[in-house]
Amino acid sequence: MPLKSFACWLATALFCTFGLRAQTLQPHMLTYAPGKSITLSLPSNLDIHIAASGLRRVRFLAQAPDGRIFATGMYNLADNTRGSVFILDGWDPKTHTFTHVITYLDHLRNPNNIAFWTDPATHQSWLYLPLTDRLVRYKYNAGDNAPSGPPQILARFPDYGLNYKYGGWHLTRTIAFATLHGRTRLYLTAGSSCDYCREREVIRATLSVMDPDGGHWQILAHGLRNAVDLQYTPDLDGGALFATNMGDDHLGDNLPEDTFFELDSNARPAPARTNYGWPTCYFAQGKPALDKTPLPEMPTPGDLATESERPKDAGAASHSHPPENTDSVYGTQTGMAKQGTLIAASGGKTNIIDPNAKLGTVPVPLTSCNDVPTAYTTFAAHSSPLGLAFFGANNPTLHDTFVVALHGASHPRIGTGYRVVQFTAADRTPHAFITGFLTTVAGKPVVHGRPCGILRLGPDTFLLTDDYLGLVYYIHPQA
């Protein structure tokens, strides 16, 4: 390589590695209601606007085959039956806003994300929607403002509602289509039913895959405690599937690290039945470590309502030391909701039938972490990584860069998360990209917003949801 060409290549490489890191983040005050605003800071060559507001617990976004933007909303934490799917319509490029919002579906059980797929044989498009208790799909035709018919049910999941006593710890399911190993299939993650326990139902804390019509459903990996976003990118490793994942909560404020995994790729196929470690392996300083905390056990077949009902010879109490949550962003929890972090699904009952027993059995918790896959990168404990997107080589600012929304610790005093971070595929070290969702006022943490879902629209351009304020932000290059 000629010296001049090498110098140009080196300058480009150094910019991609260090350019964003060195940029000063510029504040932008955004008014979302009369007398209400949020100030967010991001790189000076990017701008930000509020594209939509008033969307209760807006979560993830997807672009339909006709180009329209769909969003999921979970309403609030008190009622998990009022979720919706919205269409963000009427884009105004002058004001950077959607002029109206259409309710496509409502009265849903925790709709976390959606995906679209068009059958290459029939050219029929489908909208896929994972709910707490089932995975459904609707026929989708360009311009539809509501489903044209009833859904097809592709799969059913364990469903114990918001009652933490019966395994209501992670109620969302996540899906993504990926073309891997010569086939386009639907990948699905389901979170654990608890913070730290041995599961009784095989689909909990897993990655699974099925055909677009729901056939040939199989589990690919265990030990993913709560992988809330899945994204396929054709730009890396011949096509690769990535996920954000949350560590557990019982090891204090500084452990474990949250993780980001490359789950599978065409260049490096994942081994069958990979185990990412949970519940007994966690990540510290970027490496898996063995959790020596005794796994809680429930007496069987009893259904404990209070500690006084627990037999003396029942073993380690599953709810003897619940975490304190007086400063939780979710509000104060009492009774079994407070205790439920260490209770497996079914609350200790053994007569609960696993609806997915045909998929196999729950693996024995790992006693060694030697075979736990390496994390692509990690985040500070309790950062709660959610949405992710990859921006390829045609992005001047976000060149070959991942962008990840860190939802933030449920206890704001911990201070981790509450920002959007970026890292390159080469460097893999997260750096602040959008901040201002959490500040300190008079020595106390103040939550202003919580970043959630990301949808890439074009070069250095994307939408970002905030499920705390019910907003959708539009980030784009400065004019």
Explained architecture:
This protein is mainly beta. The protein has 2 helices and 31 strands. A hairpin with a 6-residue loop joins β16 and β17. The longest helix is centred in the first third of the chain and has 20 residues. The chain is globular and about 55 Å long.
How confident is the prediction overall: mean pLDDT?
A: 87
Give the terminus-to-terminus CA distance.
36 Å
In order across it, which strands form the biggest sheet? 12-13-14-15-19
Tally of helical runs:
2
* Secondary-structure class: mainly beta
Low-confidence stretches: 1-20, 161-168, 298-325, 333-343
Strand count, sense and closure of the main sheet? Answer: 5 strands, mixed
Based on Cα principal axes, name the global outline. Answer: globular
Helical content class: under 10%
Q: Over all CA atoms, what is the radius of gyration?
A: 22 Å
Main attributes of the structure:
479 residues; mainly beta; 5-stranded mixed sheet; 4-stranded antiparallel sheet; 31 strands; globular; disordered N terminus
Ordered list of secondary-structure elements with their pairings:
Layout lengths: L2 H20 L2 E9 L2 E8 L2 E7 L5 E6 L5 E5 L9 E10 L4 E12 L6 E4 L6 E6 L3 E7 L11 E5 L16 E8 L2 E8 L15 E5 L7 E5 L6 E5 L6 E6 L12 E8 L8 E2 L5 E4 L2 E4 L44 H5 L37 E3 L5 E7 L9 E6 L12 E6 L6 E4 L3 E4 L2 E4 L3 E8 L2 E6 L4 E7 L2
Parallel strand pairs: 15-19
Antiparallel strand pairs: 1-2, 3-31, 4-5, 5-6, 6-7, 8-9, 9-10, 10-11, 12-13, 13-14, 14-15, 16-17, 17-18, 18-22, 20-21, 23-24, 24-25, 25-26, 27-28, 29-30, 30-31
